[in-house]
Amino acid sequence: MKGILYVSHGSRIPEACQEAVDFLSLVKTQVEVELQEICFLELAEPNVEQGMERLIKLGATEIAIVPVLLLSAGHYFQDIPEEIQQLKDKYPNIHFSYGRPLGVQERLIHILKERIEEKNIPVDQAAKVLVVGRGSSNPQTKVDVEWIGKKLQEVTGFKHVNVCYLAACTPLFEESLKQALDQGHSKVFVVPYLWFTGYLMRFIERKINDLDREDKVVLCHHLGDHPVMQQALKDRVYESFKPAYQF
Predict the structure, then answer these.
(1) pLDDT digits (tens, 9 = 90+) for 45-57
(2) 203-233 CB burial, b ≥16 within 10 A, e <16
(3) What are the backbone dihedrals phi and psi of residue 128, each rounded to the nearest 5 degrees, phi first?
(4) What's the rounded Cα separation, in Å, for the pair 163 and 150?
(5) Residue 14 burial (CB < 10 Å; 0-12/13-18/19+)?
(6) Residue 69 CB burial class (10 angstroms; 0-12, 13-18, ≥19)
(7) Terminal C-alpha separation, the chain
(8) Which residues fall within 8 angstroms of residue 74, CB to CB, at 6 or more apart?
(9) Is 60 exceeded by the pLDDT of residue 244?
(10) Which is deepest, 5, 17, 166, 215, by most CB within 10 Å?
(11) What is the 3-state secondary structure (H, E, C) of the chain?
(12) pLDDT band, residue 62 (cuts 50/70/90)
């Protein structure tokens, strides 16, 4: 019997974990697989092992692990596979397959465009967009986020679009934000390339507040539970059972 294990990042902030659970619960109703469980990689429960054991107790013999991640980085290449290998050793009779993160997709760029437009703030040629990525030591992260920034510029027509990061990559968000304000842009739209709320969104809010220039800065909503995000993850769920993604 098929089962699906959604592996979300996890957070110490209950609101962030609840947002992930609510989102994944919406996706579960759209996926025609009877056994589906939600777990967290760190900082919250159920953890990966607990989620897996629930599926196995319910009778799952073929389990697809679906990473609830935007981009391929350390969690995808190292942390989750290590968890899967331990479970594979513990449950040798269970067949595991491993899905992909959402990755860079044109349809996700249009969500960012919507996040800017829903602020209902007039935009002129002097306005600037800062796309904020999580950041990673994996060099592909910068390639991906820069592609996202370029595509967002194409679909919005903004003259000034830059990317920045919250950690592990440069330029860092706080430096980029200060520079944008010093350059005298009419407005700076901060567009988080983050799936759910949590510590990183609070960090962005705090850095904006610290500069005491809220009149110039427009913080857009994160990607959240947008219907396109639901569809994108649903697509990854069905892909994860294909032989190309077997673990």
Answers:
(1) 999 999 999 999 9
(2) ebeebbeeeeeeebbbbbbbbebbeebbebb
(3) -130, 150
(4) 9
(5) exposed
(6) buried
(7) 17
(8) 136, 137, 138
(9) no
(10) 5
(11) CEEEEEEECCCCCHHHHHHHHHHHHHHHCCCCCCEEEEEECCCCCCEHHHHHHHHHHCCCCEEEEEECCCCCCHHHHHHHHHHHHHHHHHCCCCEEEECCCCCCCHHHHHHHHHHHHCCCCCCCCCCEEEEEECCCCCHHHHHHHHHHHHHHHHHHCCCEEEEEECCCCCCEHHHHHHHHHHCCCCCEEEEECCCCCCHHHHHHHHHHHHHCCCCCEEECCCCCCCHHHHHHHHHHHHHCCCHHHEC
(12) very high
* Residue located via tokens 């304000």: 181
Q: Which residue has the tokens 């990317």?
A: 163
pLDDT in tens, 86-96: 999 999 999 99
Six-digit token pair at 14? 């209950």
Q: Residue 175: which pLDDT band, with cuts at 50, 70 and 90?
A: very high
Residues in the chain, total: 247
